[in-house]
């Protein structure tokens, strides 16, 4: 499978769990594209089937806060299209309106409690 793995790069759980899972999946022959602002804490380069895709947040002077979620969504869409991803696995909460980026607004999503949910209909 071609898998997109989204995580925060920090030392915390998201980066550690996502990195270990990505390495284990690559060891089993899957192609895993880790998507984050920088290589995660436990990143090991040179693993076959494993690649890092950086989220670039362009400066935008109108807003004081960086537009990370928009940049992340664009990166997921780009990687999904370029590498024909079969699935995108996110290791932290992503608002429902941004789920299903590669399959459109009717894509199924899995909630944090493991329950399937449908994103709200768009007007």
Structure description:
β5 (109-110) and β6 form a beta hairpin. It is globular and about 45 Å long. It has a single domain, classed as 3-Layer(aba) Sandwich (Rossmann fold). It is an alpha/beta fold and 123 residues long. The chain is built from two helices and six strands, in the order βαββαβββ. Residues 95-123 have low confidence and may be disordered. It is 25% helix and 20% strand. The strands form two sheets. It has a four-stranded parallel sheet with strand order 3-2-1-4, with helices on both faces. A two-stranded antiparallel ribbon has the order 5-6.
Key traits:
disordered C terminus; single chain; 123 residues; globular; alpha/beta; two-stranded antiparallel ribbon; Rossmann fold; four-stranded parallel β-sheet; 25% helix
Helix content: 25-40%
What value does the Rg take, in angstroms?
15 Å
User: Which CATH class?
Assistant: Alpha Beta
Mean pLDDT: 77
Runs in which pLDDT lies below 50 for 5 or more consecutive residues are 95-123
> How are the strands ordered across the major sheet?
3-2-1-4
- The overall number of domains is 1
User: Which structural class best describes the helix and strand composition?
Assistant: alpha/beta
- CATH fold naming: Rossmann fold
Please give the alpha-carbon distance between the first and last residues.
34 Å
- What is the 3D form? globular
Summarize the helix and strand pattern as letters.
Answer: EHEEHEEE
CATH-level-2 architecture: 3-Layer(aba) Sandwich
Total strands: 6
Can you identify the CATH superfamily? Answer: Glycogen Phosphorylase B
């Amino acid at each position: 499978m071609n898998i997109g793995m989204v995580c925060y790069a920090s030392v915390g759980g998201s980066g550690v769990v996502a990195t270990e899972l990505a390495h284990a999946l690559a060891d089993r022959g899957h192609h895993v594209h880790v998507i984050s602002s920088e290589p995660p804490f436990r990143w090991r380069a040179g693993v076959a089937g494993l690649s890092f895709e950086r989220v670039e947040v362009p400066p935008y002077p109108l807003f004081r806060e960086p537009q990370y979620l928009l940049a992340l969504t664009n990166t997921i869409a780009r990687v999904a299209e370029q590498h024909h991803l079969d699935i995108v696995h996110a290791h932290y909460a992503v608002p429902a309106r941004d789920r299903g980026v590669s399959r459109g607004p009717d894509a199924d999503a899995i909630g944090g409690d493991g329950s399937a949910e449908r994103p709200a209909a768009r007007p």
